[in-house]
Amino acid sequence: MKKFLVLLLVFVSPFAYAKLRLPNLFGDHMVLQTGKPVMVWGWGTQGKEVEVQFAEQKVRSVIDDKGVWSVELPAFEKSFEGRQLVVVSEGEKIVLEDLLVGEVWVCGGQSNMEWTLRSTRDADLEMLSVDHSEIRFIRLPKVARYEPQDDFPVEGPQRSEGNWRKCVPEQAENCTAVGYYFARRLRRFLDVPVGLIDVSWGGTMAQHWVRKDTLRPIPAMKPYLKKFETARNDWISGGREEGAKKRYDKDLASWEKQKIEAKAKGAREPRRPNMNAYRNPDHKGHPGAMMNGMIMPVSRASIRGILFYQGENNSFTVGWKPYPRTFPAVISDWRQVFGDPELPFGIIQIAGWSNRRSMTYDMNHHASIVREIQFRTWRKTRNTGLITSYDTNTSGGIHPQRKLPLGERSARWALAEVYGLKGYGNRAIEWRGPVYESMEAKDGKITVRFKKDTARGLLLDQDVEVGFYVSGKDRVFQHARARVNKSDYSVIVWSDEVKEPVSVRYGWSNLPAGGLMNAREIPAYPFRTDDWPMTPHQSTGSYDVNSPDSLRE
Q1: Residues 39, 301: contact at Cβ < 8 Å?
Q2: DSSP 8-class letter at 367
Q3: 26 — alpha (psi -120 to 50), left (phi > 0) or beta?
Q4: Residue 20 CB partners (closer than 8 Å, separation 6+)
């Protein structure tokens, strides 16, 4: 009878004997956000009191009936002093060592944000000279889930994922390169510790980082949602893990037999079954997966802002179709789950890759569509910045190895717009490239004007006029000549092959080329003066900026 009562108590109250615990985001060498109340939360035995101590502050709370607790520490001034964070609850105690107080930024997106410092062009020098123990980072493990998670797993304190590390030679190699160069500039300019929470995952699409409830009303998301739900239902009806193992073993045995037969005939061997195809669909990339698995576990943290570098995987086949809705949704959903509708959001525009096959190919490429959506999102969304990147690619690969310019440009935006600071000589910190404003066609040429506060000292790098295209009413584009008119921040564009031009495009290519910049040598944003529909290669349907399902006001 006694045994039965114990089991009954455990069943009724599963948290009655829960161990005091912090989420894995909290650890030794962590950086806490300065200037904002700091949220600390965790789990423990229901009904018990918990006390959190840091920097001579003590805050208490009671663990609720679900075994969850949270406290809010007051805002702290920046500090390079490594201090303890102590959590106690009736005989249980957690002590974290060497916590600093500074600026905390979340770095998200896909592989170009995930790209590590050791893999950059300048790694041969930077890895030997990096010595910033006050810049810390944590790279989250890659977790995709169907339901929102309250924490992420960590395999051990020595693992490169899930633990805070310092930007020193023996630890910095795994730091996001864009984030590192961004943090390095902030550290110098603000004289403050910097913490980076890296949630990037190569190959992800915008819809992976958005909540499912947000995605369901988007018409272009229906095929993606249906595909995932079908795979999920098949997985469940097929016996989940046990059924998948049986199917894999059966297919593997069949493959072994076919391989022997093919070898005997001198034919090509069949492809071995890929174990990844038998995995739980909930744990793969699907709509909402990374929002649930990687963002929700850190969404209660106090942070300053976000840097996001993503879009390449929405630049293939029909991946652009949901992007006018899903990319802005990344910003709005992240702001909602982090509890700050004004949370600063830095957008890094995708670079170029591959090659230029033909004029038609370039003028209708998916990548140009994605860049335009990113540009339009920036112009329509408060507290955001857009950082150009197309000039960093020298190899034609999808991963430009020069990450220093992106980190520096991102820092310019943050220092100017997020921190509201001035540069040398008390001048405004310039961070935007020239932004297209208007055009005028006259006498066989088009005058393109730019917003005055972005085009100071407008120039063509080395006086090279590549990257400009012009079209007449037939919408057939030709390479164009260009000349800067510095008196009014304009560029004169023309082509001898187009007698009556009506449209200009610049940097409009899968692999953009162009040297238009301002005096700060920040590249002009790719632009077009027309709003004509575009039908990308290997795609169906057309992208139309005037479509009601495009970016909404």
Answers
A1: yes
A2: H
A3: beta
A4: 42, 43, 44, 45, 50, 87, 89, 92, 93, 94
Tell me if residue 443 falls in helix, strand or coil. Answer: coil
CB contact at 8 A, 180 and 169: no
Q: How do residues 272-321 score in pLDDT, each as one tens digit? A: 999 999 999 999 999 999 999 999 999 999 999 999 999 999 999 999 99
H or E element that contains 227? helix 222-237
Tokens encoding 459 = 């120039």
Is the model's pLDDT at 16 over the cut of 60?
no
CA distances from 417 to 3, 130, 382, 383 (A): 63, 27, 11, 8
Strand partners of residue 394: none
Angstrom distance (rounded) from CA 8 to CA 345: 49
Q: Find, among 135, 111, 136, 190, the residue nearest to 25 by Cα.
A: 136
Amino acid at 71: V
Q: Which of 407, 401, 402 is nearest to 387 (CA)?
A: 407
Q: How confident is the model at residue 12 (pLDDT cuts 50, 70, 90)?
A: very low
End-to-end alpha carbon distance in the chain: 66
Helix (H) or strand (E) run with residue 70 in it: strand 68-73
Annotate 152-217 with three-state secondary structure: CCCCCCCCCECCEEEECCCCHHHCEHHHHHHHHHHHHHHCCCEEEEECCCCCCCHHHHCCHHHHCC
pTM score, two decimals? Answer: 0.94
Position 8 confidence tier, pLDDT thresholds 50, 70, 90: very low
| Other CB atoms within 10 A of residue 161 CB | 16
Interacting residues of 213 by C-beta distance below 8 A, sequence separation 6+: none
- Condensed to tens digits (0 to 9), the pLDDT of residues 372-396 reads 999 999 999 999 999 999 999 877 7
Is the pLDDT confidence value at 9 over 60? Answer: no
Q: CB neighbours (10 Å) of residue 475?
A: 12
Residue 112 CA to residue 350 CA, distance in Å, equals 9
E strands, 457-508, where?
Answer: 459-460, 468-471, 477-479, 481-485, 490-494, 503-506
The set of residues, in sequence order, having a beta carbon less than 8 Å from that of 176 and lying 6+ positions away, is 107, 113, 114, 115, 116, 117, 137, 139, 196, 198, 200
Give 117-168 as a 3 state SS string.
HHHCCCHHHHHHHCCEEEEEEEECCCCCCCCCCCCCCCCCCCCCECCEEEEC
What is the reported pLDDT for 152?
Answer: 97
Quick check: 504 and 439 in contact, CB under 8 A? yes
Q: In this prediction, what percent of the chain has a pLDDT beyond 90?
A: 89
d(CA 45, CA 207): 37
Residues in Cβ contact with 482 at an 8 Å cutoff, skipping those fewer than 6 apart: 460, 465, 468, 491, 492, 493, 516
